[in-house]
Amino acid sequence: MATITYVKSDFTQFNLNAYTTGIQQYPDILSLKGGGFVVAYNNGGDFLSLNFYDASGAIVGTTQVPASAATTAPLRQPSLTQLADGNVVVIWDDTQFGSGTPKGALYSPTGTLLQANMTLGSLSSPSLGLPTVSALANGNFAVAVEFSGEIYSAVFGPTGSTISSYSLANTTSTGIQNDAQIVGLNDGYVVIWADTNPADQQIRGRMFYSSGAPVSGSDFLIAATGDNTQPSIAKLQDGGFVVAYTDSGWAEAGGVLGNGITLQYVSATGVLGAQVHVNNISSGDESDPDVTVLPNGFVLVTWSYPYDPTDTDIRAALFDSSGTRIQVGGANQFTLVNTTQNEIHSTVAGLSNGSFVAGWENVSTTDIVGGLHQIVRVTTGDATDETLNGDELRDIINAGGGNDTINGGAGQDWIYGEAGDDTIILSKPQTSAGNVYDGGGGTDTLSLTGASFDYDFRDDTVTSIEKVNYGYPGAVVTAIAHFNADQFGTGISLTATITGQAFYYVFETFDVTMGISTSLDLSGLTFVNFSGGIDSVIIHGDNDAETVVGSKVRDTIYGGGGADYIDGKGGADMLYGGAGNDKFVVDNASDKVFETAGEGSDTVLASVSFILIAGSAVENIATTSTAGAGAINLTGNEFAQTITGNAGSNVLDGGGGSDTLVGGLGNDTYIITNAAEVVVELDSQGSDSLLAAVSYVLATGVSVENLATDSGGGTSAINLTGNEFSQSLTGNAGDNVLNGGGGVDTIAGGLGNDTYVVDNAADIVTELGGEGIDTVLTSVSYVLGAGMSVETLATDFAAGTANINLIGNEFSQSLTGNAGANILNGMGGADTMAGGLGNDTYVVDNAGDVIVEAQAQGSDTVLTSVSYTLTPGARVESLAASSSGSTAALKLTGNEFSQSVLGTKGNNTLSGLGGNDTLYGFAGKDMLNGGTGHDTLIGGANGDKLIGGTGSDTASYATALKGVVANLTSTVKNTGDAKGDTYSSIENLTGSSKADVLIGNLVANKILGGSGDDKISGGLGKDFLVGGAGKDTFVFDTKLGPGNVDVLNDFSVKSDTIFLDDDIFKTAGKVGQLQASAFHIGKTAEDADDRILYDKVTGKLWYDADGTGSDAAVQFATMGKGLALTAADFVIIS
């Protein structure tokens, strides 16, 4: 069976007065709800001083109440109380029994003045003094005061407003009434006082409601025998009260000599209970008692002993709530202070942590001295299984053997489980530090059973605890438990089991502060009933560089300052790095990492896919070194990060900011949201993709295989540019510019008006019908793939004068060249082709093709496989069938400018329209129409219809492989390529390179013989005849006259001959060689035989039918001047 004893534990005494000027006296001490206390005392005779302390005795505030400006009387006898709202009221006597009323002031619990110089009611007698105050349960406060030998009380609101005016308390007045005391009860208050009846001085009292109205019509007797003075009162926890007073009745009853101290217990209804004689010493007087109730309900009395002007000590005794004496240290009473100085006027207050503060007036030093004390309850168990309970005092519990259940109660506890599997129960947190929880041997449990409490073990000693339980069977607990990191290991086992409650409305937190430790690993703890979204483990770092490993459930870890390594382990963790270069290890996709900008260069290492939350200023995100080839996706936020994948197929998303994304091995995907993001991907590291929500240029050397717009890009105009490697580029529904860069790229624009930039002839453009108006810009010759619905195919502006060829497909396109010599081939569809500068070639396969070519943009050619009319305004120099060997019958038509128009071997219709055109029919029965202008028509073989149109037009056989007979007047005898030809509006003839017979017509012809031995006859008209190379013959066989004078442009004496028809040159001689006598050099005949005259000066040739006769000579030709002509150059033909 357990035994219980009590001992007293003292702390260092210290001065309670902050001011040292003058004499310090009349102390009053008030305990505060928060664990601290207040001391009020008279300072230097004129002031009241108040000092505010915390529970450890550290001062937190000090203030003075000066005397009123209207009086020079000192402020004496302060009385303190704490209201329901926590504020502190102090009242005093500032009249020293002069006229006036009680005064007071209102302070916060830390000493801030809230209201000064409150006037508490109105009393007008010249005899007023010793007011006392007590808080009421309803938030008001009551004042009792001695007034003209009577006792009065009144009730005031929290700021001093009058609730009830002063009313008389005493109804029995056989003497002067003094020493009024007051205390609030559960529903009202009680006033006690001393009645100075000369026979037996009594202690009397009267009870009041909270309104200030008396409960009964008269007062009641508390103490009667002997002379009873100096009463002190305190409220008991059962609603009653206890009175301590100085009692001379001891001597009168035959007791020891001198005055003693007596306790009288009174119920809440005023019924007298136990009466206890406190002191048991053998001689001397005891006086000045003060009484308080400790948190466990025990009654503590202090008093002065013996009365000696030079050496008085302060003693104390302890009783339970029913009046049973509690021995302390084995004695009935104990000494608080025993010096050779004079200590009087003790005052005592029990604090919420189980200790008490006592103070007194040291007459010798003129100070207010006091100290913190504890009554320690010592419980000693045995070897059996026991339930050992402490109380609100400080407990020392030695459980002994057995599986014990231990509850220290309130107050500071030192609990030693010793042997056995013990359970230490805390039903509510301790209010003082320095507790000891030592499980001892066995498997020991720390059980937190109080609801909605904050348990703080950080300033306690925790040893040998293997389990921590939140709650107790049948209890519902919402609690926080605080520990220091250095309490794990020898304190709380690193393999301990932490058990929560399995209720969704129960919240449990396991809170650890790093303190002096720099490392902590909670991964070995086992958590039971710790649900991920409700319960949590919290770890607080400080400014050290710490290594923190969390638990397997949800952790919240604060790194604090320093370069921390934070690993949340299992659970959805909340990780806060703080200042320093921190590293976070993430193993749950729901982990959250928090970093503020300017707090160092921080890194997240993830073994699972991870998204960095917005606002977290982390600089680096990477997979952990153990992540291997798992597919881990990493997402940053609006700050700039370096994000590094592993050997798996990662999705890396910068999230915003100028990020650097490093995929490494595996088929990685990069999500781009900022054009300044950098992607690092080496060759042979997988097939990688880049998805961009903004326009993006892939840097040189980055081996990414696929570039595409992000699916969230919608219709945004996003441009993508590849690099020297081969990529697949895919746009969105917006107007994209897709540039493969180098390499063999596959580019797909999708919806929108897209632009494809091509720099490799093997690039593949993919564009479906109905997906916008699209453009290909190429810096190399390029063939658009079949089925690709691209509307514009053009050279890149940067291509300059490079010779770039463009080939469209079956759809209609607009093709645009550069300044080089381009070949533009629209293929199918009605295409529009613009060559620009350079000698361009247009390949036409649709009659609806449009050619755009401006003046001075080079010598350009259209090659067509279909009948085609050249676009008006197109400055094209050549229009030709794309295959001259084809037998297709084409109809080719030029425009208003000069062109060469070339047909096929089929039956072509060639029209020059305007300009000086050259039309080539080749084989086939062609119709050539020169149109306006001076045209050249080359029909080729097989009988062509040559129509010159307006202008001076030429039928040319320059391309004939054999000599031809071409007669513009009568085509019946035409041979070779001229056979079957018909002429209309043809003024000129051009022969082949062989021996031709060329005959003009009635108009002025220009006939060119070519390089063969040609026979040329101009016919009528003023013809211009050119024999060309070879031995040419010029035939004059039409009627002579001024309108029929031909020009022999290149007559060669050496090789050429002039034939004169005897039907025309009748007198020139007989058929055969012209006789020498018939030829004369000169412009007039010299004799009658002269027939042919050559004027060497003018080059004119004349025919003079009768020489020097009367007939005038007729000019029939003009030839070169100064030629060495002879009769041998002329032949008479029939």
> Any low-confidence stretches, pLDDT <50, length ≥5?
none
Radius of gyration: 63 Å
What fraction, in percent, of the residue positions are helical? under 10%
Q: What is the approximate shape?
A: rod-shaped
Provide structural commentary.
- The chain is mainly β and 1134 residues long.
- Among the domains are: 67-224, Neuraminidase; 877-991; 1031-1134, no CATH class.
- Helix content is 0%, strand content 41%.
- The strands form 15 sheets. The protein has an 18-stranded mixed β-sheet, with no helix packed on it.
- A hairpin with a 7-residue loop joins strand 24 (299-305) and strand 25 (313-319).
- The protein is rod-shaped, with a radius of gyration of 63 Å.
- The mean pLDDT is 89.
- GO terms for molecular function: calcium ion binding; toxin activity.
- Keywords: Membrane, Repeat, Secreted, Toxin, Virulence.
Topology:
Elements: E1 3-10, E2 14-15, E3 24-31, E4 37-43, E5 47-53, E6 59-65, E7 76-82, E8 88-93, E9 103-107, E10 113-119, E11 128-135, E12 141-147, E13 150-156, E14 162-168, E15 177-185, E16 188-195, E17 202-208, E18 220-223, E19 228-235, E20 241-247, H1 249-252, E21 260-266, E22 272-277, E23 287-293, E24 299-305, E25 313-319, E26 325-326, E27 334-337, E28 343-350, E29 355-362, E30 367-380, E31 387-389, E32 394-398, E33 405-407, E34 413-416, E35 423-426, E36 436-438, E37 445-448, E38 453-456, E39 461-463, E40 465-470, E41 479-484, E42 492-499, E43 508-513, E44 519-521, E45 526-528, E46 536-540, E47 547-549, E48 555-558, E49 565-567, E50 574-576, E51 583-586, E52 592-594, E53 603-606, E54 610-611, E55 620-623, E56 634-635, E57 642-644, E58 651-653, E59 660-662, E60 669-672, E61 678-680, E62 689-692, E63 696-697, E64 706-709, E65 720-721, E66 728-730, E67 737-739, E68 746-748, E69 755-758, E70 764-766, E71 775-778, E72 782-783, E73 792-795, E74 806-807, E75 814-816, E76 823-825, E77 832-834, E78 841-844, E79 850-852, ...
Parallel strand pairs: 30-32, 31-33, 32-34, 33-35, 34-36, 35-37, 36-39, 37-40, 38-41, 40-42, 41-43, 42-45, 43-46, 44-47, 46-48, 47-49, 48-50, 49-51, 50-52, 51-53, 53-55, 54-56, 55-57, 56-58, 57-59, 58-60, 59-61, 60-62, 62-64, 63-65, 64-66, 65-67, 66-68, 67-69, 68-70, 69-71, 71-73, 72-74, 73-75, 74-76, ...
Antiparallel strand pairs: 1-30, 2-30, 3-4, 4-5, 5-6, 7-8, 8-9, 9-10, 11-12, 12-13, 13-14, 15-16, 16-17, 17-18, 19-20, 20-21, 21-22, 23-24, 24-25, 25-26, 25-27, 28-29, 29-30, 101-106, 103-104, 104-105
